[in-house]
Amino acid sequence: MGLALAVVRDVREVRAPTSPEELVDFETDVLAGFVLARASAGLADSTIRGDVGHLDQVRAWLGKPLWDMEPTDGDAYFGRVLRGVPSGTRLARAQAITTYFSYLELRHQVEIHAMTGRVVACPLDEMNRPRGAKQAKLRIPPTAAETMTLFAGWSAELATCRKYAPTARNYAAARLMAEVGLRVNEVCGLDLSDVKWHLGRFGKIHVRHGKGSRGSGPKERMVPLINGADRTLRWYVEDVWGHFDDDHTRPGAPLFPSERCNGDGSCSRVGDDALRRGLAAAARDHLPSWPGALTPHVLRHYCASQLYHDGMDLIAIQELLGHSWIATTMRYVHVHRTRIEDAWTAGQLRAARRLEGLI
Question: Among 45, 159, 161, 210, whose Cα sits 20 to 30 Å from the Cα of 329?
């Protein structure tokens, strides 16, 4: 009995070739979906913007949709184009590419294959993925005497400065960073209503936009107004804030306003660039030994170091700064003078006393 061959028809839908315009629209929609997916995961807007910025730069170099990127393209890009770029940038860009291709594989692999015939695969593998880990930059803060010199000169300047309100605002914001270790973006995001004078012994600040661990999104915390921060904030709210706005009860009123107003006449929120410029100018005038080196983050390191020097334990400092890991807090603590040497000497004396009578 012989076998006969039957004609088999492909019953799948016959799709017309995709036009270049359709591919451009599809690529735009895919990137928009990527942004929405990352936002739904709770990532901070700054983190998402950073990833999209990395992808845009790779896309501009490649000259075609990222899903067309091959491992050899990855070799050329990281091996030649980014060869001399700092390792932190290389690692961040590689992570953005890897995350984006994970999204493509999960959400759009079938569509991309149907439209282009390509099977989505990440161009970075074990052979060409950038190695290393991004290390935190060591920021040695100024001494207590240097910081006192800075703020004393800055405070005296308030009596003669041309624009009192913004200068006093920048001064108060910098003091909060130095006294309770707030990040500059956390300071900018504070509302007047976030100051809770009735909580705790000194009052507290509700930080609603704290930095999350590993880009997990904003993390809230309550920061007690210790270390003189309560006095700084009371002076600022009572004597300075009214120069920007006269309605303390307006919902959403920023604690640190900008000189610019919104469309309804209310003050907008100050940007971190204004606070950075104010600190840099004050350091240039009152702490010339720190030209261009005193930043808001250095003041945060100063806060951690000074509190540790004054006897606060690392766990409490970790909670104050909003760190997820104690190891991160330990990198913020820079001990001046001879604390380590003194601890070593004390240990040697204790060991010697234990040996008394045994020799």
Answer: 45
